[in-house]
Amino acid sequence: MDIPYTVEHRPDTGIYNAKLGIWLFLASEVMLFGGLFSAYILLRVGADQGMWPHGWLDVRLGTVNTLLLALSAITTLLAWAACKVRDFGKFKFFHACTILLALTFLGIKSYEYHDKWIHYEIQLTSGNFADGHLVEKSKNFDLAKKTGTVTLHGRMVEDRRELMDLRTPSAQAAKLDEITIAAADIRKMENYGPKHNTFTAIYFTLTGLHALHILGGTLVIFYLWAFGKTMWRRDPERFTNRIEVSGLFWHFVDLVWIFLFPVLYLT
Amino acid sequence: MINMSESEQPVSLKSCIRLCAVVFLVVVCTTSAMIATSFSHLGEGWTLKVALILAIAVVNAFLVAGHLMHLLSEKKLVYAVLAFTVFFFIGLMGLTVWATNGFPPGTVFH
After folding, report:
1. ipTM of this model?
2. In terms of CA atoms, which chain A residue is nearest residue B13?
């Protein structure tokens, strides 16, 4: 069975079906991410004065990821252009670059997630707060039984608000030390995972969903890169259209990051 | 006259690479501008900074959508789909801003 309008344009729409399909899909994606951005705005505006985190994310890593995605968007466009001029070798090269850039992006994102996972905030029975990265837990560490110790590389503060804005001069100047805390002195211990506060919740939700889109897009691009030769030989124009459609999705993913980066890392 | 979108016009790899180099350069500049704005001292509070940073992000997004997604020369139907999307997106954000200070009766503030 022949699927109609995979190459030639439909007379009523003026474009081939897959292109209309991807634009409709992207429209639904805008609303999906729009809903989450809306949630972000409400959470941020609703946060108490001085309780919305600033400077919790590494701007350097975010910048590198921004440039990686921009480069991958460019190699995607070049892969499509290579198909248009019927140069399959260059297509393979440019899309291999796209896949590598995407995997590097995901690698950096995983590193950032891991960094948050081993970052702990500990409320002590004295009322003070210890904050830092986990160095080690003693073998007999058990928070419920109040046995053992935990060691963090970080600092102690009296007011939790001091942990919120890491861009203040005092936070920048803070000296980090190794702090060993007995389980008996701990009232509450929590890492910077999604349930830590509303910022980490929306951060993991937004970037997690975005990372899933990157992963999905990478799988599709990899499939076209690895198994596309047969279709390329049989129907190069149809294959080129597939590359264009996957490219449109990839550019959309880049567009989402263009807003995620400033919203989460810079503001 | 045949109405061709940018993606249907004859493509030259060289001109594509030139365009991509310009786009990447502008992306680097806009990203740097966003970071510089974020770390600058523009008065008290974050409102002005957020507005500026988002304005730069919109320029960045326009560049990617316009040139890399060929949105500067697409078919009317694609524009129609996008017009609906923009309409509903503005509605969504409008509702969000409208609801920002609306709390149900009985809400307790700590």
Report:
1. 0.89
2. A81
